[in-house]
């Protein structure tokens, strides 16, 4: 049962990404600014930082699985989110071998991860011709608002979930 | 150490290959989703409606309270309208009957105007803004098929991009590109043969409008505010679905044809209830 909690929370955020954007006031959706929720990625980063040990790669596995689910459910272009999330989470995992797990490090790492993944996703979508926007516009119209929205999300879930993650991690790896 | 470095490089290369293969696979023209995709879409769709329904219920109550304030005034206007409609209903019934009789005479039962409506509710919207898709809670089991038109009370909003057993994905007009053309027309009832035919080619993100390319060069000028409806000639959508109104007419870069900018009739951002249009008249397969 314990092992199911993390996938369930991830699944909940995955579902919420789609529902929230439909229920949010249309001004946010219609406006000139594009906000892309990367809530699954934010939570995956928290798992890497606070749950995974140096030699476990649970977050990377979840990144592959849930990235793939996002591809299937929301874009129907398979592989893009899967690859991006997996690589970004793997990089975060490597970084955390030398960094300490505290709030400021988390903030910095998540911001880095968000920028890297969104830029890469946009790069792929530009190459296959789905995104039609110049890179200059992309930074102001899409990257910055998405970044702010996701950091806000991190600030909301950080106090709630980090303690739980640390607790679960202790229970899991103490044996 | 060098072995691990090699292994890492190797993994990333395999990852990139998988990425390219998967993208190639999904960009291919696909008629239907794989079973795995359908299963996942249905599962997520189920969870989405589980969350969407109660939240939507609460937001509806709030907007209902707003509505109540206007009820008295609206009621008065509606009653007046109702009186007018009574006369209209009689007239429509007569016309329908006459139409049916005439059809019998010429031995034509179905027209490209007829369709069976499938009512559905929007449960989610793709968070990836480049992909203009919403999820609705009706699927193959309810008779939804790929490429059916999707409308709201105001007009067309898109077409079915893919269908799984209990959910389907709608490609919104805002995400239409050159591969999703709609055969459309502006009907003029003054004289016979004055209708203007053309194709809705794509959605222009800069002007927030659909591009309506007029096929034949005609001397008639389009006027602002004229209604563009689907013509049914594309073979997929029924005729007469309102698409939008003319906002502006511009010549194309060679000056041979003209393009009208169309303001979509339906609100493409606040969509709650939609109707999937199942055209009665089937097109013969090639």
Please tell me about this protein's structure.
The complex is a heterodimer of chains A (175) and B (286). By secondary structure, chain A is mainly α. Chain A has one domain. Chain A has 7 helices and no strands. Chain A has helices at residues 2-23, 26-30, 39-51, 58-75, 80-95, 103-127, 135-173. In chain A, helix 1 packs antiparallel against helix 3 (39-51) and helix 1 (2-23) runs parallel beside helix 4 (58-75). The longest helix of chain A is centred in the last third of the chain and has 39 residues, at 135-173. Chain A is globular, with a radius of gyration of 16 Å. Chain B is α+β, with helices and mostly antiparallel strands and 286 residues long. Chain B has 2 domains: 51-109; 115-279, Thrombin, subunit H. Chain B has 2 helices and 12 strands. In chain B, the strands form 2 sheets. In chain B, strands 1-2-5-4-3-12 form a 6-stranded antiparallel β-barrel. A 6-stranded antiparallel beta barrel of chain B has the order 6-7-8-11-10-9. In chain B, a hairpin with a 4-residue loop joins strand 7 and strand 8. The model of chain B has no long low-confidence stretch (mean pLDDT 81). The interface between A and B is large, with 42 and 42 residues.
């Amino acid at each position: 049962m314990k092992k199911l909690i993390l996938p369930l929370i991830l699944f909940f955020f995955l579902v919420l990404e789609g529902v929230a954007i439909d229920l949010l006031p249309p001004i946010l959706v219609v406006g000139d600014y594009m906000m892309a929720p990367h809530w699954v990625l934010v939570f995956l980063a928290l798992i890497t930082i606070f749950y995974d040990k140096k030699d476990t790669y649970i977050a990377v596995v979840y990144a592959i699985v849930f990235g793939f689910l996002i591809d299937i459910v929301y874009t129907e272009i398979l592989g893009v989110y899967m690859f991006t999330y997996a690589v970004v989470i793997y990089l975060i995992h490597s970084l955390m071998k030398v960094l300490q797990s505290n709030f400021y490090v988390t903030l910095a790492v998540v911001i880095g991860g968000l920028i890297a993944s969104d830029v890469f996703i946009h790069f792929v979508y530009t190459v296959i011709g789905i995104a039609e926007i110049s890179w200059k516009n992309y930074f102001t119209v899409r990257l910055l608002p998405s970044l702010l929205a996701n950091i806000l999300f991190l600030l909301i879930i950080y106090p709630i979930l980090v303690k739980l993650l640390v607790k679960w991690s202790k229970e899991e790896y103490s044996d | 150490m060098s072995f691990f470095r090699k292994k890492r490089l190797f993994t990333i290369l395999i990852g990139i290959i998988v990425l390219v293969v998967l993208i190639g696979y999904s960009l291919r023209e696909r008629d239907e989703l794989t079973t795995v995709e359908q299963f996942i879409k249905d599962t997520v769709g189920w969870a989405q409606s589980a969350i969407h329904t109660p939240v939507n219920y609460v937001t509806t109550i709030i907007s209902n309270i707003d509505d109540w304030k206007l009820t008295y005034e609206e009621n008065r206007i509606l009653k007046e309208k109702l009186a007018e409609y009574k006369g209209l209903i009689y007239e429509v019934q007569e016309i329908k009957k006459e139409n049916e009789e005439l059809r019998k005479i010429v031995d034509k039962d179905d027209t490209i105007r007829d369709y069976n409506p499938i009512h559905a509710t929007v449960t989610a919207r793709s968070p990836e803004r480049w992909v203009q898709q919403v999820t609705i809670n009706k699927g193959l089991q309810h008779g939804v098929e790929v490429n059916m038109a999707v409308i709201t009370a105001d007009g067309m909003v898109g077409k079915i991009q893919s269908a799984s057993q209990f959910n389907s994905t709608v490609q919104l007009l805002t995400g239409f590109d050159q591969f999703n053309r709609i055969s459309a027309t502006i009907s003029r009832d003054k004289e016979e043969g004055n209708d203007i035919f053309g194709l809705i080619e794509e959605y222009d993100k800069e002007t927030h409008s659909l591009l309506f390319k007029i096929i034949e060069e005609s001397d008639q000028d389009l006027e602002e505010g004229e209604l563009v409806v689907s013509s049914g000639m594309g073979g997929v959508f029924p005729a007469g679905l309102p698409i939008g109104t003319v906002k502006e007419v511009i010549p194309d870069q060679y000056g041979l044809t003209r393009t009208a900018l169309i303001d979509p009739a339906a609100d493409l951002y606040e969509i709650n209830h939609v109707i999937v249009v199942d055209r009665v008249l089937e097109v013969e397969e090639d």
